[in-house]
Amino acid sequence: MALQTPSLTFQVRRNPPELVTPANPTPKELKLLSDIDDQTSLRCHISLVAFYRHDPSMKGKDPVEVIRQALSKTLVFYYPFAGRLREGPNGKLMVDCNGEGVMFIEADADVTLDKFGVDFHPPIPCLDQLLYNVPGSDGVINCPILLIQVTRLQCGGFIFALRLNHSMSDAIGLSQFMNGMADIARGAQKPSILPVWHRELLCARDPPRITCIHHEYQKPQHDNNNDNFILQHRSFFFGPKEFAAIHRLLPNHHSKSSTSDILTAFLWRCRTIALQPENPNHEFRLLYVVNARYGRCSFNPPLPEGFYGNAFVSPAAITTVEKLCSNPLEYALGLMKKAKNEGTEEYVHSVADLMVIKGRPSYFYNDIGYLEVSDLTKAGFKDVDFGWGKALYSGGTQGFLSTFMYVPYTNSKGVEGILVLSCLPIKVMDRFEKELNDILKTKDESQILWSRM
């Protein structure tokens, strides 16, 4: 379940940040982002960290130099990443493909991989030193779109960390870029999957028309009393044993429900109980990220292979605290699956149209009654191999107050499962962990009473 992060401090010596530019001349042009890309909720940064062991077969090769050169060559294909975002009329975002470059930091740390413990996972000790926020670099407009830091370790391993302007790409698009860079780092002349722009496929229709109900952009109807608390980050591991315990809480006809769906319903319910809302009639929402590249949400014809823009929407399930917590887990699962099934091609087009008609409304991420689940188990970050083998951990750096992030994970015992990155107020986090442990130890959900709220 909850994984322990070692108490660890170390020193990182960084070279001055530099701008890595495309290895060859690239087009100088303006490229419009889609209306899915430039929504307000995505005008932020997302980050990733990956741990790599020393590989004796790579003796004499410097990971910093290998990755820096691969980055420069990859930017020839992904040249918009070397540009800067500009804001046009009505706040429309576009990329100024000027070749200015990606910010790159070379660093060394006086620590070895074994000091991080046997299981590598967030929260990451000294993360602010492994992914340094260069002053003036973290804006959305007129700033580097990508920042990459490669930190050598004393054992010969290294840590790769990255920060991306979310307006440019979603997790799958970022993974495609990283795997392309890894292809070139291992000697390829070009990425195995060539990038495709075609952001117009996710722009609003003419005329725009909202054809679906979008609860995710509606403010929850409850008092927001989540001010003045200290947040804590924690990672939870769910393997076969934990999944079997959760399945026991459901009738047999749910045996074909996906692991991710069942886990999401379970966590939504446990989190709500741990929050101890004062009013049982308060409205809580679950946003489930679905991607237009595959599944029920996929386009016809499909989005082209190599598309690396944002291509996801987050349909919302809504219920009251009392209904969510007093009903069996099957109730939460039904709500979640219904919301997920609303994520169709038409839903994506309706979101794009809503952005234009309503002036890019945002999610209410600062609201404790909001929970967005982002399942990155199929994003492909675990496959990124710069020549030193696959990472011991590759994924998000931490959870967020209104988000659970799922990362594929194999622990030090070789058990495969899902790592859940979470963030909650400290007291709520303790109750959340206790709730998880208590429920997973019982075979009869009727023992979990509403009176515990």
From TrEMBL:
GO terms for MF: transferase activity
What keywords were assigned to this record?
Transferase
Q: Which InterPro entries match?
A: CAT-like_dom_sf, Plant_acyltransferase
Q: So what family is this one in?
A: Belongs to the plant acyltransferase family.
Question: In its UniProt entry, what is this protein called?
Answer: Uncharacterized protein
